[in-house]
Amino acid sequence: MRNLLLLACLLTPLAHAAPKNAIVMASGASVKDCEHYNALRASENIAETTVNMMMASEYLQCSLTPTLTPVDEPAAVLQQIADQLRIRAIPTSVGRRAGENMVFSAMFNISEQGTLRFSEEQHIIDIRLKGQLDDHSYLLWVSDEILDRTYRAYFPVVVEHQGENFSARPFYASGY
């Protein structure tokens, strides 16, 4: 497993440089690579179109920074996040169904693939722990899909451990 993580870290610069399908930003600017995407995401969101929401999954890899390190016990960290982070701290399609203080472990399970997963018929949300940014923060990737509808959302999230609790914030300054 550690070898796969090392390989992923070595390939990250190649993934950043590879051209992607164009995605349109809120300003109308179109980008095709991580460098321009990350620069624009510092100040704006992507335009909310069906095509963009589907393309957003290609741009998740742009959040893989050189400072990201593997987590020693990912299942234990993911379980701790599930037990302590409120569902409404991250904007997902199940947020309205969750009680104000309901934590992820109330509606999500840890899947065999090592993700926090909500699965209900054609509605699947996977939250994947990608690595540790510093001593108290982790990078998560959210994939939120309703397969029999046109709803798709893909975005990176930073989860910070503060004392006994976790909090969440967007990876990009412009938001989710």
Structure explained in plain terms:
The chain has 176 residues and is α+β, with helices and mostly antiparallel strands. The chain is built from four helices and eight strands, in the order H-E-E-H-H-H-E-E-E-E-E-E.
Summarize the structure.
The chain has helices at 2-17, 34-41, 50-55, 74-84, and strands spanning 23-24, 30-31, 109-110, 115-120, 123-134, 137-146, 152-162, 165-170.
For the CA atoms, what is the radius of gyration?
A: 16 Å
* Classification by helices and strands: alpha+beta
How many strands, what sense, and barrel or not for the largest sheet?
6 strands, antiparallel
Task: Summarize model confidence as the mean pLDDT.
Answer: 89
SSE order, one letter for each helix or strand: HEEHHHEEEEEE
- Estimate percent helicity: 10-25%
The unreliable regions are 1-14
Q: What's the N-to-C terminus distance?
A: 29 Å
Strand portion: 25-35%
Backbone shape: globular
**Count of beta strands:** 8
